[in-house]
């Protein structure tokens, strides 16, 4: 790959970690540029105008000579990096089923499991707004439901899409393995611990820092 | 395609409509089986055990002789149907950028634009729980932000990923064109009306019923 890859990230974000883990597993060089989302670094006019009009990280910057392109959305960036690799199944149903887990991750898992981790570990329970506080219980229930759906699937196979690791596992590993920081009890989902161990044992695995 | 396709759906759902629109544009036969999500039809033991452990529609059933597979998540079902069609760009960045909009749809758009439509048009404002009522303003703001991000992009090109329609447009059209039912004012986003017209003018377009 002649192109240069730079991840615009906040290292506390599991969404950013997914991309770093994908790059590491594929042995792709990936530079990083750090932002502090809590200081508003991703809401500046420059960031909104040039990097992501949605005001969010991660964004993957792809530089090929003078041509620079920006790719927001963690799972889209993982897809870009893993194109034509073994992390994406090529068979039609298997590929769609992998994407199914990645959409599930963004809809059912991340808004609950990741948001409670952000609120409880980084914002702090005492600093939550009334509106946030009113949502904690609903997010707790929905997050437990998401972990339970994963647990059901992982009782059938070593990874979410069969016997090989795919982007589905990477996407869901990111916030699942630190779900304890959001007050979730991983021990309640007996299939998740061994699955986490399998991912941590992959060649070139890198931990979240 | 030798396989038989059946959509497990609630016709009120834009997530189900996406799949029907994709099938129609591609001229693929698609049977349907109806559920009433408000009556709990998707939470029965049979549905959870056999069709989708996540208890949600849409689910695409793919039957090939005696082999039956189920594919949850609307955007994954669209991806399956559109594989190898012009609705998915093949160039690496373009394909990832299309997925970027589909993840954006599930994370930033649907939970706000679709949820407010569901709450205001189907549940009814008077029947909202206190917890739902407390979220209306935040969802209004986030939904407007999502429509604004689309508007910014559509000022640059006819469709979200350039000059041709892709699954990104279908995914985001589903709830955008009925956003008025959630109290959003589409006239505030001048690029959206012409984009909606372009999609409605596509050959084999079918309306949401």
**The CATH architecture of the largest domain in chain A:** Up-down Bundle
CATH topology of the largest domain in chain A: Glutathione S-transferase Yfyf (Class Pi), Chain A, domain 2
The tally of strands of chain A reads 4
Binned, the helix content of chain A reads 40-55%
Describe this structure in words.
2 copies of one chain form a homodimer. The first copy, chain A, has 209 residues and is of the alpha+beta class. Chain A folds into 2 domains: 4-82, Glutaredoxin, CATH 3.40.30.10; 92-200, Glutathione S-transferase Yfyf (Class Pi), Chain A, domain 2, CATH 1.20.1050.10. Chain A has 7 helices and 4 strands; from the N terminus they run βαβαββααααα. Chain A has a 4-stranded mixed β-sheet with strand order 2-1-3-4. The mean pLDDT of chain A is 96. Chain A binds chain B through residues 53-54, 62, 69, 71-77, 79-80, 83, 92-93, 95-97, 99-100, 102-104, 106-108, 110-111, 130-131, 134-135, 138, 145, 149, 152-153, and chain B through 53-54, 62, 69, 71-77, 79-80, 83, 92-93, 95-97, 99-100, 102-104, 106-108, 110-111, 130-131, 134-135, 138, 145, 149, 152-153.
């Amino acid at each position: 790959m002649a192109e240069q890859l730079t991840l615009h990230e906040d290292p506390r974000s599991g969404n950013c970690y997914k991309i770093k883990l994908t790059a590491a597993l594929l042995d792709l060089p990936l530079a990083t540029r750090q932002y502090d989302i809590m200081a508003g670094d991703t809401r500046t006019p420059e960031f909104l105008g040039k990097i992501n009009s949605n005001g969010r990280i991660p964004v993957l910057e792809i530089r090929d000579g003078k041509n620079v392109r920006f790719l927001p959305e963690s799972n889209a960036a993982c897809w870009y990096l893993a194109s034509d690799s073994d992390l994406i199944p090529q068979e039609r149903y298997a590929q769609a089923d992998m994407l199914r887990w990645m959409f599930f991750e963004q809809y059912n898992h991340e808004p609950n499991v990741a948001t409670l981790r952000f609120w409880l570990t980084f914002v702090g329970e005492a600093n939550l707004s009334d509106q946030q506080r009113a949502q904690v219980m609903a997010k707790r229930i929905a997050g437990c439901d998401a972990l339970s759906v994963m647990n059901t699937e992982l009782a059938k196979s070593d990874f979410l899409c069969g016997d090989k690791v795919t982007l589905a596992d990477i996407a869901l590993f990111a916030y699942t393995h630190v779900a304890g920081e959001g007050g979730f009890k991983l021990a309640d989902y007996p299939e998740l611990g061994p699955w986490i161990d399998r991912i941590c044992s992959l060649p070139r695995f890198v931990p979240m820092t």
